[in-house]
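Step 1: inspect the first sequence and its tokens.
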Amino acid sequence: MDISPKYWPEKEHVFIFDNATTHKKREGGALSTSRMPKGPSAAFGIDINKVGADGKPVCGPDGKVLKTKTNGKFADGREHEFYYPKDMDGLLAGQFKGMAKILEE
């Protein structure tokens, strides 16, 4: 900002910064990449509330809402798998793919 008065000394300079948290707003249930790991992870998962056929949350015997892992969707509506197949051979079976792999796909 030191360049402004240096190059335009005859002007009054006003700098406005918009750090509003509303820029992080997204639709309910929308995924956020801010906490997703870059690489594969057995510990990370994108869990959402399990919903029954009636559209209501499904609860377990303890009364807590059950969670289920979710995948993403491409713009054309096709599902985008975020996890390696559970039936594949190797250490990555069933793990979250990681953002690098998801973006590559």
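Step 2: inspect the second sequence and its tokens, then contrast the two.
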Amino acid sequence: MFRHVAQRRMLTPGYAVVYPNREKAASKTAKAIVALIMLISVALMLILIIGGWSKLQGLKPVDFIWCIAYLIMAFYIFTRWARGLLPITTGLAMLLLIIVVIAGTGAAGTSWFDRSNPGFGSAGLPADFLGLVTVLLIPVQILLIFFTMLAFAQGWNVEVEVPIDEAKRRGYHLAESRPSEPATA
């Protein structure tokens, strides 16, 4: 169907594939920072969702889905070096940044800080605290955008073929591979 796409990887016998950019300390640090910032974002969002549950309007399921998506993406970025999730994370962080700037400043009407006045009733947590958490999400999302783009530029996906001995010296655990035999009908 796709003529120019390799059907399977052709690996030189006696060689293994390694990812040299993943071995760098800067790449490992960026990966850990991205995952940590995503977990901090989830914690802050859950504080807002649960603490302001009685006053939130709509989008409660979307908030939980957003948290779950961040958790799943953080898992794959941290454990599997999923570089393709970094731009998606950046996009979601930009959307969340827009939402929290609007919510934190009260640009769309009422902010959490306005809800501390008489007549708004009580949310689970004090409205001023929820407003502070909303405003704290702004720098957290800016940091997430910065570090995901930094990590994306590191080229975690670059592959290099090296002799098996070199790959083992670098710490790669290689599965014993058998030579492939042609399929018989």
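Step 3: confirm your contrast with the notes below.
Residues 20-169 form one domain. The radius of gyration is 23 Å.
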